[in-house]
Amino acid sequence: MSHTTPMVEDGPTGADRLKPFVPYLLVLPGLLFVMGVLGYAVVGGIILSLNETDMFMNKTFVGLKNYIDVFADPRFQAAMLRTLSFVVISIVLGIFMSMSFALVLYKVVRGRRFFRGLSLVPYFVSGIATAVMFRFIFTTSGGFVNTVLAQLGLPAQSWLGDPTLAFVVAIMANCWFMVPFASLILLGGIQTIDKDLYDAAAIDGANPIQIFFRITLPLIKPMLGVSLIWVSYISFSTFDIVLALTSGGPLKATELVSIYMYELAFRQLNFGQGAVLMVVLLVFNTVLSLIYIKIFVMGDRRHSEAGK
Amino acid sequence: MRVQESGPMALLFQRLGPKVLIWFTLTFLVIWTATPIIWAILSSFKDPLEIYESKSLLPEVWRLDAYRKVLSMPGFSTWLMNSVIVTVVATIVPLILAILAAYGFARYAFKFRHVLLLLYLIPRIIPRVSLIVPLNDLMSDLGLINTYSVLFITYIASAVPLATWILVGFFGSIPKEIEESATLDGANMWNRLRHVMLPMAWPGVVTAAVLCLREAWNEFSFVLALVNQTDMRTLPYQLYMLKDSMGIQDYAVYNAFTILTVLPLLLVYLLLERKVVDSIVSGAVKS
Amino acid sequence: MAEGYVEYRNLRKSFGGLEILHGVDLTIPEGAFAVLVGPSGCGKSTLLRMTAGLEDVTSGEINIAGRMVNNVHAKNRGIAMVFQSYALYPHMSVEDNMSFGLKMRKTPLHLITDRIKRAAAILKLGPMLDRLPSQLSGGQRQRVAMGRALTREPEVFLFDEPLSNLDAKLRVEMRAEIKALHQRLKTTTIYVTHDQIEAMTMADLVVVMHDDRIEQVGEPLAIYDRPANLFVAEFLGSPAMNLIPGTIAQDADGRFVQTEAGLRLPLEPEANGTVGQAVVYGIRPEKPDGRGRGGRYPPGHCVGKDRAVDGQHEAAGGVLPRRRGRAAARR
């Protein structure tokens, strides 16, 4: 091509020399910043996990010693098991609640906007505030639950003093915080389903339960995947809620990996081992997310795109 | 349906069963969602001793004492200002970066587009808590502990991917023809962005802004790891520290403080609720 | 207004090694209403978008008003375009939609007001200037899209299937309106459509495109009567032209076409083709008698006021080269 007319301005006409770089100039600043900070932290954390640190943050390279020590540490093993059960229970309960809320928010006609708006409120309450609120719901003297129990003539419970009950309360607080977002995601999935399908299924003689399992559930699979990622991400990295609710107690009954990590690094000043727990959290969460994406989102891309 | 089920009682159950279930679940949803907040509000108006002793749910007298105490705390205005400053910066800067990036992703085909887009997603699956250990170490080395900069940097870095992903969806859904039409109308990239893309993607911009606001206002782990001076605390951090700083717990003050930290963000949310909820339901926001 | 013409010289377009426009040569005279018509995916929209400056030119030249515009930015080409989806700015009032382009060009305010007034008067948009596109009907939106193009006072109007989103009745109305507008303004217009009726009724110059190249260019009736090849013959006209395969033969009366069924079809003396050549004989359904020898028709089925007749018939017509592609009748 031998063009002599000068290019007047940038834009789709294209001969502008800068043009090929425009998208990169747009996309890269944000990415470099994010990668700079988070990548720096992740890499720094991995390096830190290979070092032993003393109280003055002097580091000596020790290879995998921290990993060996941490994995052999019974307190870590307990925290890990506790985290896994916390996550599993949270996911099961959280998805059940999200699905129920989503279905109800879909079905309700009068005041639909109000209920939807209300349902998302907890999402905007900080983890710390959530924890404080739940503490005053369940606190022994003057808590909401015990006050109600008293009015019913029932004995007060030491909710946060009992290891099992405290664990349950922590899961409840976690669900309170994470369910709203998940249920709106699911609601979005349910709304994209063509209403004719329900009518067709009803004419075919399916009852509501069959309709849910045969029509709704398969069609919202991608959304289910997204909300599963959200729910398990939040549960795995729950930190502020539990820290402010129970500080890991009583008797370490709610000491999750994230809490133990904080304890190791910031209380015992063992940053090397703390960093090992960081790697553990990172790997678990990434693997879990990838599994969900593989199962739910990738496998059903056709659906989600058709739904848009 | 089997034959014996279609008697009058069964029919009645069939008609009413789902309705009852819906109302039951809806009632549960409302109670479940509202109770913690309402209880905190009620408690914040009570007398400290009343909380321990009274068997009544409502305050005997509605007192504002607790709020007065919170507002007169030395440092409350500092913490509030810290929260506001950090939140404003950590909302505006990520929004600008995200608008540019999202526009690039939505409107240009280029090499590595897919890879770069995925790189924007990865930070969303990194648990932020996990970063507190290395961040504390690295930022101490840089001498950035107890500075605004360190909060800006970490908050912005965690908000950019979120905002970008939201906006890519919104920009992408704007028909290309409209922008082409603007090109023919003589609008350059900035003008197209300003006069066409941003106004049309406004619900998305608002949603992204509110969610950035939420992340920054509620952020806790980063402050915890990167700040240890009293005058650098943000509201959530101070709320956490209340537990240790008050000798005998004044539940009313505690609750009042909670309400005051939660309220500003809730007001923003209630103001823009429609756009935010619609955006999330439409699937434009995926964590 | 109404100066300039559009000229394409060996214009090509490739996308990642795949050529999607194979060497277009075309001249559109000043003031003409040219319609690019062809099935979807034939390259007509690409050609239009390249003219607008929305697509790069791979090789060849586009000239507008004697100026080579390959590297001129879209906004400086003196064109205005009406999109299939109208592409109205949904957040702007009708007035703002029409003035946006002028504002972007820093046109003085009083000029903007003048031009909007004039465009609104021509298109009867006066009462709607304050409304948003979402408050308008399909036909009104269409008018706004045209008004937006009008205020620009371009040298060339480009229309990209502007009527395909309207219902049948409105389409007929708007067709007439666009044509009337052209007669009034005499601005060179390039109009893309897949609807051959639009092409036949609106164009001064029909450009039939197929498989990323031009099949035939000419006035509507000329093309209709003398399609250059099988594709054009089949594509134009509804119901479609009857096509009967045969062979050119000759006897004492002159040349004729011998069909496989043994019919003898007359051949105009000026028709090209040599004896023994395999040809396809085309007969327009609406003139079955012409110079034909009559025949028996089964009862017809109704298509509006016309009666379409399905049947076999022998009649006069032209001979088409069997091979598709470049046609002898090309100008």
Automatic annotation (TrEMBL), chain A:
Pfam families: BPD_transp_1. Belongs to the binding-protein-dependent transport system permease family. It is found in: Cell membrane. InterPro entries: ABC_transporter_permease, MetI-like, MetI-like_sf. Keywords: Cell membrane, Membrane, Transmembrane, Transmembrane helix, Transport. The chain crosses the membrane at residues 21-48, 84-108, 120-145, 165-187, 271-293. The lineage of its organism: Bacteria, Pseudomonadati, Pseudomonadota, Alphaproteobacteria, Rhodobacterales. Its main location: membrane. It is a multi-pass membrane protein. Residues 80-292 form the ABC transmembrane type-1 domain. This is Sugar ABC transporter permease. Coiled coil: none annotated.
UniProtKB/TrEMBL annotation, chain B:
It is a multi-pass membrane protein. Keywords: Cell membrane, Membrane, Transmembrane, Transmembrane helix, Transport. It comes from the Bacteria. The chain crosses the membrane at residues 20-42, 79-103, 115-135, 147-174, 195-217, 251-272. It is found in: Cell membrane. Pfam families: BPD_transp_1 (PF00528). Residues 80-272 form the ABC transmembrane type-1 domain. Its main location: membrane. InterPro entries: BP-dep_ABC_trans_perm, MetI-like, MetI-like_sf. SUPFAM superfamilies: MetI-like. Belongs to the binding-protein-dependent transport system permease family. This is Carbohydrate ABC transporter permease. It comes from Pseudotabrizicola sediminis.
UniProtKB/TrEMBL annotation, chain C:
Residues 284-331 are annotated as: Disordered. It holds the Pfam family ABC_tran. Keywords: ATP-binding, Nucleotide-binding, Transport. Residues 321-331 have a biased composition (Basic residues). InterPro entries: AAA+_ATPase, ABC_transporter-like_ATP-bd, ABC_transporter-like_CS, ABC_transpr_MalK-like, ABC_transpr_MalK/UgpC-like, Mo/tungstate-bd_C_term_dom, OB_MalK-like, P-loop_NTPase. It comes from Pseudotabrizicola sediminis. Signal peptide: none annotated. The keyword Protein biosynthesis does not apply. Residues 303-313 have a biased composition (Basic and acidic residues). SUPFAM superfamilies: MOP-like, P-loop containing nucleoside triphosphate hydrolases. This is Sn-glycerol-3-phosphate ABC transporter ATP-binding protein UgpC. Gene3D superfamilies: 2.40.50.100, P-loop containing nucleotide triphosphate hydrolases. Residues 6-236 form the ABC transporter domain. Belongs to the ABC transporter superfamily. The gene is ugpC. It comes from the Bacteria. One of its GO terms (molecular function) is ATP binding.
